[in-house]
Amino acid sequence: MPVGLFRVCLLVITAIVNHPLFFPKENGTIPENTEEIIQKMKEREESLRLEQLRLEQEIADQEATQKALEKAAVVVEESKEEKVRWDMWTALSMVVFLLIELWRQDFQEGNWQDTGGEEDDMAVLGKAFKGVAFPNKAVLASFYEKRILGTTADMARMREMVEGFADDLLEALRSVCNRDADMEVEDCMGVGSMYENWRVRKPFVCDLIVPFAPPEPYCFCCQTWCSGDSFPPDEQGYGTIKVCRADEDATGCICDKTKLGEDMLCLLHSQVSSARPSSEMEDLLCFKNTQYLDADQVMKWFQIAVTKAWNRISHKYEFDLSFSLLDSPGALKIKFKSGKSIAFNLTPVVQYENSDVYFISHFPRSSLAADIPSSTHWFLTFAVYERRFIQLVSKTLPANACHVSCLQILSFLHGKQCSLTGPSGLTNYHLKTVLLHLLQARPSQDWAPEKLEARLQDMLKFLEKCLHEKKLYHFFIGNEKVPAELGFPIIFQRAEPLNLFRPFVLRRDIYRKMVDTFHEMLRNMSALINEYTVHIPHAHTNGIRKEHL
Questions:
Q1: pTM for the whole thing?
Q2: Which of 128-142, 334-348, 357-371 has the lowest average pLDDT?
Q3: Which segments does the entry list as coiled coil (predicted)?
Q4: What Cα–Cα distance (Å) separates residue 264 from each residue in 251, 255, 258, 493?
Q5: 217: cis peptide before it, omega within 30°?
Q6: Which of 187, 10, 129, 254 is closest to 519 using CA atoms?
């Protein structure tokens, strides 16, 4: 049985193997198909190889692009880090620079009046001072005795005469004014070079200030640039004067700022008192439709009042009185029948609170207030305190101290130079401010009479330095070292220092003229002094020099 089954299977396998479909007799196409397949396989292989190359190229390009992007990102990151580092260093440098600048300004403002106690502190002069022949002690002494003392001997007599006449004129002014409606005029005070004994140039002019106040029930409410109100930089040193009722605050009641209902009434002000006609305020010399005192209105009122007063007392005097300057309210001139004349200024001022600081309407013969912002802005003058400071310091100085002599000589030289080259922005007030700074900075013994030459050089050096830096600070404003004996208002001591040269920073033409005038004065100094100096023998000069060595 198994053998039979094996045979049957063998037969079936033999039949299948020999089937013609599997092994045909004609097999000539097989080699051709093989070549085609091989050819197609080669073509396919070639196409695959090209595709592979293309893909490899794309991959290489992508890798190159990726590397470039990564490199660019690294560069950008490095540049950002470098920029951050640079910005950090720049910011740090700016902060350090600002701190240094703030420290320098604080140091200058805190010690701007400290010029040093030794003579060598200002030994190095600017280029303009080099090569200048400075007069020696003997020449200066002869010049001062011949030119200064010889022309100022009659100043005291002139002051006495002017003060007596001014008192009489103001008394007549009070009599012609309406006490219930006009301003109340107080006694006059002498200020300036004539009363500080350093004026040298003729004609001698006495400066008198006359405080005035409004009639009852009004009062003046003063506001300054350092009282907390906002004043622009070009109004530093100015203030405004508001005319208020005595029972009213300077800022006004809230009823003036808020609309009250018809059934509401202010308990402080009735309807009658709160309404102020425009004509009433104009009668109080205020600017139109405001409560602020108008300097131009004050000038007109004062000129009219002085004219009426003179008409009342003119029969008592054997001279004529006239206004010498149209732009100054009290620039007066006395004309005698002999042809001689005496000029003086009677200027109305308003007292600041209970101090001796005054709001002044006009500055005769001065450019200090040449560009007043408006007629409601008044310049503050500290002339009374300046006079008191000089008197106070003079008591501590040696006998016949040279401080006044220095200012007189410098004022004379400046005046002579201006007569040659024309006026400049530099004024005698600037020269006096320089002296005030040095009086506070220098010890008392440095102002001995034999040190006139050294102190005069110090003033010129200090002034040259201020001109170079365009900074000359007001002596009182911002100066916390003002002697307590003067009773100077603390509000001005704590204020920011006021630069008197600030107006010249933007006006370069005036600044250039001022610097040129100073340089010309230095170059012409010896010639101007020698012109008024008697001849001094050389041996006598050497003897004086040895005496002081």
A1: 0.71
A2: 357-371
A3: 38-72
A4: 21, 10, 11, 45
A5: yes
A6: 129
| CA dihedral (118, 124, 130, 131) positive or negative | positive
Secondary structure of 399-456 as H, E, C letters: CCCCHHHHHHHHHHHHHHHHHHHCCCCCCHHHHHHHHHHHHHHCCHHHHCHHHHHHHH
Distance, in Å, from the CA atom of 520 to the CA atom of 526, rounded to the nearest integer, reads 11
Distance separating alpha carbons of residues 494 and 543, to the nearest angstrom: 50
Bridge pairing between strands 218-224 and 358-360:
unpaired
Report which of residues 93 and 331 the model is more confident about: 331
Amino acid type, 286? C
DSSP for 25-65 reads: S---SHHHHHHHHHHHHHHHHHHHHHHHHHHHHHHHHHHHH
Is the CB of residue 279 less than 8 Å from the CB of residue 297?
Answer: no
Three-class DSSP labels, 121-159: HHCCCCCCCCCCCCCCHHHHHHHHHHHHCCCCCCHHHHH
Task: For residue 182, give both structure tokens.
Answer: 């006009």
448: amino acid identity, one letter: A
What's the Cα-to-Cα distance from 351 to each of 211, 223, 239, 366, rounded to whole Å?
A: 6, 12, 12, 21
Q: Of 385, 346, 351, 399, nearest to 474 (Cα)? A: 385
Which element (helix H / strand E) includes 5?
Answer: helix 2-17
**Cis before 203? omega within 30:** yes
Structure tokens at 243: 């005319």
Q: ∠ at Cα 503 (500, 506), nearest 5°?
A: 140
**Residue 76, burial from CB neighbour count under 10 angstroms (0-12, 13-18, 19+):** exposed
Does residue 240 have a pLDDT over 80? Answer: yes
In the chain, the amino acid numbered 61 is: D
Query: Tell me: the pLDDT tens digits for 451-462?
Result: 999 999 999 999
